[in-house]
Amino acid sequence: MSKLPKAHKFVDLSDYGRPIARQIANRLKYTNFTPVHVTLAFILSGLIAIYCIIENLFWLAAFFLILKSILDAADGELARIKQTPSYTGRYLDSVADIILNAIIFSAIWYVTNASIWLTILAFLGVQLQGTLYNYYYVILRNKFEGDTTSRIFETKTPTALAGEKQSNVNILFKLYKLLYGGFDKTIYFLDPRAAYGKVFPKWLMTSISTFGLGFQLLLIALFLVLGLKQLIIPFFVAYSVMILIFIAIRKSFYK
């Protein structure tokens, strides 16, 4: 099931794992596995990938990074198939992603002896890239009655949905705001009128989908297996310039 109506789908370069994710979700449809169980599985896959990076097992690291991306899509697919959307799953997913990203870049810093400050810039750049992509994507989903579990503006704690505890939502929302609040505010400051402009064209969303976490992890995996680990951190620092370029395009042509 798609997060967008068919007429507004675009080629999402970060979502290459969706076909396999759907198969996994379909296999789990009539089991006791929940979307949260799948989220825990992608956390485990991410941690194994980090261990492999530290041990210079780059082919294995690449495998588990891509598996993490597939499972990251599968938890949402399972929630839609079972019709059990939850804020618990939505925020757990996001909190796990940012923590794993921080550890992944720490592991890359460890094996490349890169500057710690450049590593921090790369991590911040990756998070801002992902925030811009998610910001624009959620705007589309809300405009066209797609999946609305994610909100354009995360300003207050949502009311728990059926089947989840409000206490869990409260805790995970606070963690989300702590970890993502600064990135959300930065992107909103750069493009506060995005939700009120014209519909984003498909080519622009496809271009911005290179900021999606799945595509970012795919790039890291490719750099590792090609023996280009030294270029990972400089690349993501440099590619962050595209944040301003994409925002400028949207503002210039789609006010």
Walkthrough of the structure:
- This protein is an all-alpha fold.
- The chain has one domain (9-253): CDP-alcohol phosphotransferase transmembrane (TM) domain (Four Helix Bundle (Hemerythrin (Met), subunit A)).
- It contains 10 helices and no strands.
- It has helices at 18-28, 35-54, 58-81, 87-112, 116-143, 166-190, 202-208, 213-225, 232-239, 241-253.
- Helix 1 (18-28) packs across helix 3 and helix 2 (35-54) packs antiparallel against helix 3 (58-81).
- The two termini are 31 Å apart.
Structural key phrases:
CDP-alcohol phosphatidyltransferase family protein, CDP-OH_P_trans, Four Helix Bundle (Hemerythrin (Met), subunit A), mainly alpha, 255 residues, globular, CDP-OH_PTrfase_TM_dom
Quick rundown:
The protein has 10 helices and no strands. The protein is mostly helical and 255 residues long. It starts with 17 loop residues before the first helix and ends with a helix.
As for the CATH topology, it is: Four Helix Bundle (Hemerythrin (Met), subunit A)
The structural domain count equals 1
- Which second-level CATH architecture applies? Up-down Bundle
Question: In whole angstroms, how far apart are the ends?
Answer: 31 Å
Note the run of SSEs as H and E.
HHHHHHHHHH
Radius of gyration: 18 Å
Q: Helix proportion of residues, in percent?
A: 55-70%
What's the helix count?
10
Mean pLDDT: 91
Report the principal-axis shape.
globular
InterPro entries: CDP-OH_P_trans (IPR000462), CDP-OH_PTrfase_TM_dom (IPR043130), CDP_ALCOHOL_P_TRANSF_CS (IPR048254)
Keywords: Membrane, Transferase, Transmembrane, Transmembrane helix
Organism: Olleya marilimosa
Family: Belongs to the CDP-alcohol phosphatidyltransferase class-I family.
